[in-house]
Amino acid sequence: MADTMQFDLVSPEKSLASGPVTAVQIPGADGDMTVMPLHAPTITTLRPGVLRVEASAGTTEYVVTGGFAEINAEGVSVLAERAIAKGDMTADDMASMVADARAELNNVKEVFDNQPGPVDDAAKLLADMVAMGDEIGLSAK
Amino acid sequence: MPNLKDLKNRIASVKNTRKITKAMQMVAAAKLRRAQEAAEQSRPYTERFNAVMGGLAASVGGSGSAPKLLSGTGSDQVQLLVVMTSERGLCGGFNTNIVKKAKTHAAKLIADGKDVKILTVGKKGRDQMKREFGQYSVGHVDLTDVKRIGYTDAQGIAKDVLARFDADEFDVATIFFAQFVNVVTQIPTAQQIIPASFEAPEVDATATLYDYEPSEEAILADLLPRGVATAIFSALLENGASEQGARMSAMDNATRNAGEMIDKLTIQYNRSRQAVITNELIEIISGAEAL
Known about the structure:
The complex is a heterodimer.
Chain A lengths: L4 E6 L4 E7 L1 E6 L2 E5 L6 E5 L2 E7 L2 E7 L2 E6 L2 E6 L2 E3 L5 H22 L3 H20 L6
Chain B lengths: L3 H58 L6 H4 L6 E7 L9 H18 L3 E7 L1 H11 L3 E5 L9 H16 L5 E9 L5 E9 L16 E3 L2 H75 L1
Helix pairs in contact in B: 1-6, 3-4, 5-6
């Protein structure tokens, strides 16, 4: 059995990581999932959260916002809209991301006049952002 | 005949011009390399994105539940043209070519009785479109302050376009930009982004069957707006590289022309200087002979 798989993390601006890994924990829209070699082919969307990559060299963590992940026989590709290595993440980044999400929520509330669908989505996005901030110890004030 | 002083001034001024164009060419070359790198780095994302979208669109697209962004509104009456050009001039035919392409397209649509709306990105395109198609303009995106095109800039434009689409302001959106081939060749391109079209991957028996989380439709609905942003982003990057490439070759030409001009002026200057000397000599000699 293969004990590693190919992993790629790409954002629109650049490719952040590529190489063999043993496991990847993905913040999926329906909940976190850990992908190991020979996982069933899956496509899932991402919520804002922490992407944990385990390779033989050690564990790396990335902060990702929306995007999606494709898991197939060859490995995992994560296409994140924004991805930052956890160590490079600053409180300012966090604050601006939360502020964006909050502005979006207010905007959506106005535009859609409190219709449940879009407003709930935006509220969830904000909640996910804040939860992510708590998780990495950079809670937004 | 211009006198010597004028010629000398003229040569000095052309030399200064050549220095400037040479410097601009060098700056453009450096920027071109950076722009090309950026375009290359975004390519893996775009490729994978389109591959996944192609698969999704092929499986969901056939059903009646396909989102409007994919299947269209069922009409093509109102057309939105997004014309992307540069913020600065002095880059040869770069902006003119894009605008020409957009103008031909717009004129054809108008002749067919369609409604045309124009959104311009980049100052130069707006100025050129304003003359003939000013009344169709619905907006302008200014990127003057943007030093390095980021994904967020594309997202901003995409958000604007999508908001208009949600408000039923148009049925079909097309972007105009220049595809970068090499320094001398940039192809003005029109690409339809709404309704989105993805090249369906070749369906073979070994194609992977994916599990979808959440549902296929939900993923598609989530990804289609991102697809618009991705298309705009890669167009912006292509445009960025094309602009620098066009400027580089334009400035290269200008430098060469300045060099030729300096040579010509120098010859003229030398000839008139010799003529002056000869004249003086004749005067002196004939003066001496008269004595």
